[in-house]
Amino acid sequence: MEELVGLREGSSGKPVTLPELWGPCPRVRRGIRGGLEWLKQRLFCVGEDWYFLMALGVLMALISYTMNFAIGRVVRAHKWLYKEVGDGHLLRYLSWTVYPVALLSFSSGFSQSITPFSGGSGLPELKTMLSGVILEDYLDIKNFGAKVVGLSCTLATGSTIFLGKVGPFVHLSVMISAYLGHVRTKTMGESNSKAKELEMLTAAAAVGVATVFAAPFSGVLFSIEVMSSHFSVWNYWRGFFAATCGAFMFRLLSVFNSEQETITSIYKTSFRVDVPFDLPEIFFFVALGAICGVLSCVYLFCQRTFVRFIKTNRYTSKLLATSKPLYSALAALVLASITYPPGVGRFMASRLSMKEHLDTLFDNNSWALMTRNSSPPWPMEPDPQNLWFEWYHPRFTIFGTLAFFLVMKVALSFSCLFPIPHLISFALWTLLSLAMPGPWPELPHLGFGPAGAAAFSGAVTHSISTALLAFELTGQIVHALPVLMAVLAANAVSQNCQPSFYDGTIMAKKLPYLPWIRGRKLGSYPVIVEHFMNRTITTLAKDMPLEEVAKVVTSTDVIQYPLVESTESQTLVGTVEKTHLVQALQTVTPGQQSCLQDILTDGCPTQPVTLQLSPETSLYQTHNLFELLTLQSLFVTSRGRAVGSVSWVELKKAISTLINPPAPK
Amino acid sequence: MEELVGLREGSSGKPVTLPELWGPCPRVRRGIRGGLEWLKQRLFCVGEDWYFLMALGVLMALISYTMNFAIGRVVRAHKWLYKEVGDGHLLRYLSWTVYPVALLSFSSGFSQSITPFSGGSGLPELKTMLSGVILEDYLDIKNFGAKVVGLSCTLATGSTIFLGKVGPFVHLSVMISAYLGHVRTKTMGESNSKAKELEMLTAAAAVGVATVFAAPFSGVLFSIEVMSSHFSVWNYWRGFFAATCGAFMFRLLSVFNSEQETITSIYKTSFRVDVPFDLPEIFFFVALGAICGVLSCVYLFCQRTFVRFIKTNRYTSKLLATSKPLYSALAALVLASITYPPGVGRFMASRLSMKEHLDTLFDNNSWALMTRNSSPPWPMEPDPQNLWFEWYHPRFTIFGTLAFFLVMKVALSFSCLFPIPHLISFALWTLLSLAMPGPWPELPHLGFGPAGAAAFSGAVTHSISTALLAFELTGQIVHALPVLMAVLAANAVSQNCQPSFYDGTIMAKKLPYLPWIRGRKLGSYPVIVEHFMNRTITTLAKDMPLEEVAKVVTSTDVIQYPLVESTESQTLVGTVEKTHLVQALQTVTPGQQSCLQDILTDGCPTQPVTLQLSPETSLYQTHNLFELLTLQSLFVTSRGRAVGSVSWVELKKAISTLINPPAPK
Fold first, then answer.
1. Rg (CA), chain A
2. Are A124 and A462 in contact (CB under 8 A)?
């Protein structure tokens, strides 16, 4: 049906529809419509990227907050159950253990049944993706659901199982960002550019950290140092914007929920400001940092060995492959039995939740002094005013409980194949600083407890942002220099001895990666592309008969072929994709004698070669190019002739030959 | 003289010298020598880069501290003179003005006579250098002396002339690093690699900031965001290490000099920690941030206009060109007259030194409340306990003095062609937050004074690190979120409207630079190299007769020529430098008929082409390549033939055509 139109009185313009003509206040409505149009233009000229980043931050903050909230409730219910169940040891034991066993086996069964990618930290895979490798399905949105449920259930087991939250959250955030990107591509009809996608992933990594700890600065630094070897300042802006939105929203929610009066740091501390530390303490900071570095090397080594053992051992590998939920349930049962408070759990403060553990370790009272003269009895319930007292045992002393806690937790995190959480590093630092026979026994935790978390987790992940994280969490930055020095010392030790946790996992999982040319070894300079390029490339010449092309296509397994002018000249003119070639070959009527040139002119698409190496390009330069532009492979031409190709495989081999030269014969 | 040797008893090894044989404790000495040798090997296997970075940090810290110390003494002497000179107005006026006039004219005369490069901030030039352009002599060590003397004298004028210290210090640090690099190249005999040099310069920029403010984190962030458009994580480590060494040394010196008990933040503050700000205040933070952004745009615009006026105006340009010391002396006289305390200086707290200004503006007392009911008389001397009182004037009120201070200081910094110091931004924020008619009149300075400095100077320089700097300076980071949001708001406004201070200066000084493709405009994608490359390249063919080569060499003015296989095929085989060609041509006996190939085989060196573009490479990809690899120019080949070249000039033209498309005819 056509609409009726009319002309406005006195106007000679275009006709308008009757409903509009006869509606009330035509001018006002027109004005509003014009205003909205103008606003839309204004808003869109900013670039929808920024709305996208804001949406990402807000979404992640909502997810993080909701998850925290739900977990808190489940943990509280567990505590209530444990308290109410009475004094019978069997009931108590059951109420303590059934909860985590059920949660953990459900969590691992649920995520396993949906997708195998949702387990683990996820960061090593992300690192590989950001260097340009495409891991199919890894960022699929169905992984998201599995990971959220799995993570929530695991964290809801309370103090039984400790899980680092950063890795999973970064993975979640990246998945959300990839999904939003898909939605955008569909609705806006833009073509999906890979560069843009990678940018968004980097920003999403920053958001992941920022929404766990409400720490935008360290989120961005983390995404700089862990995620890639080169960083574009353009990403830096996006990262800051998205991380700030996320962190603000995350803290705002807790204010709205009346948990807090206003937006503050998560673990507010009150260390001395006037004289935060004595000058000689700096040396202890550095020494403890170095010790943390050594311990992190030991940890990394043990972790890798243990993972290898689990995967190669006959029983465990079978159990893991066939029935992961059963393995999880068994592990949970063992862990819960160990942490059962009236039993061994007594010696590892297992009545405290993860947050309470952190709160007590951030404490700035001198435990050594406070427990020197008195030995109060063990309270039936943790005393909310003196939670730290859970760490104390009259015969075992604080040293004993801390050391026992550390050993057990590290062993447990191994057995669950989980990454180590920051919490363990706090305990480590507390123990070290208490044990340090310094001339300052009255100083609690060597001034600044979070320094240990920064040093140890910095050493494990090869990063410095953990130092900044310690300040953002506590709201005090007066210890900037000593903590930074401790982190640097820890990193100096661990970077020289072990690959980082992420790199180690990448190697163990055999994901593709490009080794770093460490310290710009001068030895790498004289090596040129000619020495290591792959010389056996299959070129397709334009004057090749089609049968031969078909033979080549069926006998080789590459994605794209270099296209050369003629078999004789071998002058590179472009590339042609295998799928296109196969399609084109299928439409050719058989028996017709023709050459490749014909199907190219018939419309088989070719791509130009936009960048090419020379045989004289140095290894160093090639490595740089691959890293900076996140390339997969490049063709090598000499005077226009295609003479070879270089891909990650060749580069990696060349670099490893440089680092470990083959024994001379 | 040959040394006498002997054999050790019972040994069948190599003979040793007699003094060694007969010296005491041969074993111990051998052990020590072996140990030292081992230590040396150990130490050198770390890579001497780290020692170099440490030396850089320590040197800069020494320079920074010594300069501060000397300046402090000179300023104190000036104050003493002004106090002792009596009540006569003429004498007082003279003692107030002669000092800065003498210092400033000496400073500008001294540095002018040594080198013209030592003036100004130096950062714009550094930015250009880090993008790969070589500015001859700009990092020469004699500039260093001139800059140190000039800077010290200017800063020693006290509150009369305000100078941003960051820019000059970064320049100084980079000069030291370049000099150390030269020394190293000479002593170690290594070849000087450009990539390594640029890395060191970036680390040096971080050291520059860290040794002024003792703020390693923001130093590194500053070097990330201001110095280049891409950042290698490798540099990040170096930056942190060097900046930490510098900041630690800088603060250590002030402890050794008994100025402080231990290492703490420079401007310690004590804002409330429990409830650092009320939630609604965040909106004011963001709003004030946006206002700061708008004001920074105004400032940047005025500054550029003023510089252009000074340079084009007949009188001033003549004065500046012929007698800069005179100009400086005149400017200093005017400034000193204006700041003369009993005169107009009364209204701008000119009796305070720059450090005292900062101290008072960091104050967290509510000035508005404290001056509401009382109006004490103006003290003869500034009261050390209540320095802020200098800002108060009974009739002018605090608003008046602050506004007057702001206007005057901005105008003055224009007239001296100096960059604006952070101090002005503090005053701006204080004024804005006092003037904000909010429902919280009892809150001092809207919670956190340094936020203003962060927002305004962040907007002027287009950086976020200023936010982190505010926390490192004050030692409190509880305001992380609101300050970050204010800085982001300020940046959002200023980045959309004006180029940053550094970019503006680069444009005004007509330094070479590569425009940024803002927001990855999609319009830039379809443009390919073929559309904008320089097609008129002069190639030298191997079969060219020498006369023709000589003609080409004398008639063109390029540094290197593309070398092609033959005039007909134009297949690119390498490049040859003009200087080498000229040398080789001079040795050829004239009259002898030969071609270019002959002198090449005679030993005229050629370089291989390691990277080449195709005509189909996109503008976006080319831009990325140039930025990432800091290239100057690349040759374009099509099927091996050299068909053109692309350099910064072409890229810039192509990008500006995209941004401002030519009007269709």
1. 31
2. no
pLDDT tens, B543-555?
Answer: 888 888 888 888 8
Percent of chain A with pLDDT over 70: 74
Residues of chain B neighbouring A207 (CB-CB closer than 8 A): none
Please check whether residue B94 touches A, CB under 8 A. no
Under a CB-based contact definition with an 8 Å cutoff, are residues B339 and B537 in contact?
no
| Cα A350 to Cα B242: distance, rounded to the nearest angstrom | 43
Burial class (CB in 10 A: 0-12, 13-18, 19+), A269: middle
Cβ under 8 Å to A: B residues 543-572: 565, 571-572
Average pLDDT over residues A394-417: 69
Instruction: Give, in degrees to the nearest 5, the angle at Cα B263 between B258 and B269.
Output: 105
> What confidence tens digit (pLDDT) does each residue in A239-260 have?
999 999 999 999 888 888 877 7
Backbone dihedral angles phi then psi of residue B544, each to the nearest 5 degrees: -75, 135
Residue identified by tokens 């939605």 is A183
Chosen from A43, A263, A516, A630 to mutate, greatest number of chain B CBs within 10 A: A263
Contact A488 B240 (CB under 8 A): yes
Tokens 């103008």 sit at which residue?
A38
β pairing state of A560-564 and A540-541: parallel
B468 lies within 8 A of chain A by CB: yes
Assess A534–B contact: CB distance below 8 Å, yes or no: no
Token code pair at residue A431: 């123990």
Determine whether B506 is exposed, middle or buried from the number of CB atoms within 10 Å of its CB (0-12, 13-18, 19+). Answer: buried
In whole angstroms, give the CA distance from residue A596 to residue A567. Answer: 11
Confidence of residue B97 (pLDDT cuts 50, 70, 90): confident
Bridge partners (DSSP) listed for residue B232: A230
- Chosen for mutation from A185, A233, A625 (greatest number of chain B CBs closer than 10 Å) is A233
B435 has pLDDT over 60: no
Task: Say whether residue B125 is in contact with chain A using an 8 A CB cutoff.
Answer: no
User: What are the DSSP calls for B346-406, one per residue?
Assistant: GGGTTTS-HHHHHHHHT--S-HHHHTTS--PPPPSS--GGGGGGGG--TTTHHHHHHHHHH
The model's pLDDT over A194-253, given as tens digits with 9 standing for 90+, comes to: 777 778 888 899 999 899 888 899 899 888 887 777 777 777 888 999 999 999 999 888
Chain B residues closer than 8 Å to A224 by CB: 224, 231, 233, 236
As a whole number, the mean pLDDT across chain A is 77
DSSP letters along A1-39, please? -PPPEE--TT--S--EEHHHHHSS-HHHHHHHHHHHHHH
Q: What gap in Å lies between CA B144 and CA B171, rounded to an integer? A: 9
> Quick check: A612 contacting B, CB < 8 Å?
yes
Under DSSP, the state recorded for A440 is -
Nearest-by-CA chain B residue for A521:
B47
CB proximity under 8 Å: A 582-611 to B: 608-611
pLDDT tens for A370-390 read 555 565 666 666 666 666 666
Assign A658 a pLDDT band (cuts: 50, 70, 90).
confident
- Mean residue pLDDT across chain B: 77
CA distances from B323 to A316, A567, B315, B317, B319 (A): 85, 72, 12, 10, 6
Decide if B173 contacts B208 (C-beta within 8 A). Answer: yes
What's A504-552 look like in SS3? HHHHHCCCCCCCCCHHHCHHHCCCEHHHHCECCCCCEECCCEHHHHHHH
CA dihedral A644, A650, A656, A662 (to 10 degrees): -50
**What pTM value is reported for the model?**
0.82
- Other Cβ atoms closer than 10 A to B396: 16
**Contact between residue B438 and residue A437 where contact means Cβ atoms under 8 Å apart:** no
Cα–Cα dist A339/A93, whole Å: 10
